[in-house]
Amino acid sequence: MNELQFLTWVRGPGLDIAVGIFLLGVLWRLFEIYSLGRKKDLAAPRQRSGASGLHTVFRRSLAPPGMLKRSPVSYIGGYIFHIGLAIVVFGFAPHILLIKNLTGLSWPGLPSQFIDLAAVVTMAAMVVVLVDRITKPAKRFLSTFEDWFTWAVTFLPVLTGWMAVQHLLLPYTTMLALHILSVEILLVVLPFTKLFHAFTLFGSRWYNGRVNAHKGVPV
Amino acid sequence: MQGPLIDTLARQGITRRTFLKYCATLASMMALPPAAGRAMAEAMAAARRPSVIWLPFQECTGCTESITRSHSPTLEGMIFDMISLDYQETLMAAAGHQAEEARHAAMKDNAGKYLLVVDGSIPLGLDGAYSCIGGRSNVDILKEAAEGAAAIVAMGSCASFGGIPKANPNPTGAVSVSDIIKDKPIVNIPGCPPIPVVMTGVLAHYLTFGSLPELDEKGRPKAFFGETIHDRCYRRPFYDQGKFAKTFDDEGARQGWCLFELGCKGPVTYNACATVKWNGGTSWPVESGHGCLGCSEPDFWDAGGFYKALSVPADPLKIAAAAAVAGAVAGVAVSFANRAKKNTAKQTHEPITVDDLEK
Q1: Of the ranges A58-72, A77-91, B12-26, which one carries the lowest mean pLDDT score?
Q2: Does some domain include residue B311?
Q3: Number of A:B CB contacts under 8 A?
Q4: Considering its fold, how many domains does chain B have in total?
Q5: Does the predicted interface ipTM exceed a cut of 0.85?
Q6: CA–CA separation, A167 vs B231, rounded Å?
Q7: Mean pLDDT throughout B240-252?
Q8: In total, how many domains does chain A have?
Q9: Does a structural domain hold residue B106?
Q10: I need a labelling partner for B58 at 20 to 30 A (CA). Which of A49, A134, B193, B272 fits?
């Protein structure tokens, strides 16, 4: 298999399989999680829930008072790499073209130099967050294989994509194929690891906010 | 026409100055040091015409057209005249047995010294019966001719990589020259058709230094195939700015914006079109408003469609919808199982009374 055949495979059958497993996993887990249900809370609500659920969705994206000072790396690093990922994934013209092809939705792309900068900043933030996880004893103690693994599968697409654009190490064709392959690995892994927070995050925040309001501590 | 090249050129009205200029340009194009231009000129001027045997196999004659027709009034064409082209079916006056005899005579007289040029792929299906010349299969002729060759030039994508005949499902079992010949130096000059100046560049290098130019891992001269079309494309700034033509006749296309979204394969195609251009430097595919097809890459024909951007799926996603349904069904099934488990737990649950605790 030469590199163009490799690229055609990851663009063709490889993508088909990865997107298939991704959709299967996502729907499976969403149905399973949301059909679990909760026992009815028979206590009379202390407070009407109102918009507490919605508020919590946003409030939990902000650091609680004092926490930013106590663990700046987690918060600032976390912000940077999440926002950076969003810029790179949704702002780069070839990515938009893929999304348009799959879903019909499209929007204008950002200049590639800006995407390049965002990719470098994202990788730097991810490396800092990783080093923090390794050097802080408590974090290291709490980390399992899944934490290291999900970091790697998130980091690799950014790294290979950036290297492809910069023509580093391998010919562009091979690097582009590796980039797409790394994204396919991410797609396969996402529904079955903690990366699934991309889907469950807002639902669980909303639920917590609502329950808290019911118990008398609305936000 | 025998004798040193420079005499023949002089007879055709080419001055020494023009010839030197040409050699310097060739040398710089091939990224050789400035002195190489002079060495090249001296070597080429003094060179006796090397014998060249050109074998056409499973091909469309486009490579021959490219070399002979488009550049016939230029110096490249002249130099091409200066080699002793002892066998070329399309161009030679002889036919039939005479032609075959000419080939045999050239092979015998220049054994171990002649340059073998091949265009077209070699079919291996049905013992090579898909393409025969004078009652002999291509693979047979190639093996025979390769034996006495100093080096082999695989002209065009078919000879280099199998090309269009090798396209899925490859009914004739077409293969490239390098799939068959393993013990001779082979230069691949892919392209559908290849750029004429690459051919003359390789020839000039061979005449000057007595060796083939530096090749990449696919056997292509690095000087011409070292960079992608995309990296040397004059429309590259539009790619970086995110300005793309969406159709072949929209405002973007008229403005000359990047053709990536229209399926241009420039980013994964290594060739010199963007710098050398075609038809004596007149234009080239992207300049004429059409994306690169990637014709100098192996299996370009099966690389997922000429008009599909590189970043979109090569095939329609066939299993995605079925997988989504399967996922939903699995999710619902598991949720029923979970509920059943919960209900069983609820039913088998025995509340503890005060009496139980006092037992």
Answers
A1: B12-26
A2: no
A3: 140
A4: 3
A5: no
A6: 10
A7: 91
A8: 1
A9: yes
A10: B272
